[in-house]
Amino acid sequence: MIASQTISYAVRVVLCNDPRLGDFQFVLDQVNQNWTKILCQIFLTFSAAEAAFIFARSLLHTHPSLMKFHVFYHCCATSSLSTNFLFHPVDLAIEFAGPFICLLAVHYLSTAMTSQEHGQVTLLITYTTFQLWYAYDHDEHMNLYHSQHHKTCDSVYSVYIRAMGDPTKNLLQKKLYSFSSSPKKGKEEDCPMLFEESESSSVGVVIESD
């Protein structure tokens, strides 16, 4: 939560520092005047961020040295809005460094090619959409495909589109479910200990929250 708020502060106060952005009419006028450019920039940012996120999430599922940082996130089999806070700091850095760098790169490129006002308005819209979608992507009532990712620890590593990775390389799923077709229930404190057990251990656990 602290990391998310820090990034939000940097975007809203440091990068989007034009006081006119607090005026909804100013933002609306900018959108009306440059809507094609804004849509293109949003599409480019989300495409780059999605590619970076898929790459990072696939590493966390397929590399044994990184899985131990991501397993805590999958201890909750039934996702909710609060699942957004279940991150190991290393996991958070790996997953969101790439998308955030993409966001900044497209922002500075847009500002250089157009105007500061256009760049800041687009960055504000893109970042707000990015944050809201990722949050509601975990909502148990909306039941989007990322909720299924929590239930099965499948190989869908994307955020905005449903892109399936190679299931045979998903070592985290195999570790959690011990090659079983259904989750094993266990005590909450058992889940983070999975990777402290010996490699011969055959029991994986997943926590289902109420």
- Rounded to the nearest angstrom, the radius of gyration is 19 Å
End-to-end span in angstroms?
22 Å
* Uncertain segments: 179-190, 192-210
Overall 3D form: elongated
How many domains, in number, for the residues?
A: 1
Report the structural category.
Answer: mainly alpha
* SSE order: HHHHHHHH
For the biggest sheet, the summary is:
none
Strand content: under 5%
Secondary structure: number of strands: 0
Q: What is the share of helical residues?
A: 55-70%
Number of helices: 8
Give the integer mean of the pLDDT values.
75
Plain-language structure description:
By secondary structure, the chain is mostly helical. It has one domain (26-196). Helices cover 57% and strands 0% of the residues. The chain contains 8 helices and no strands. It has helices at 2-15, 24-33, 35-62, 64-70, 89-113, 116-136, 145-152, 171-177. It is elongated, with a radius of gyration of 19 Å. Residues 179-190 and 192-210 have low confidence and may be disordered.
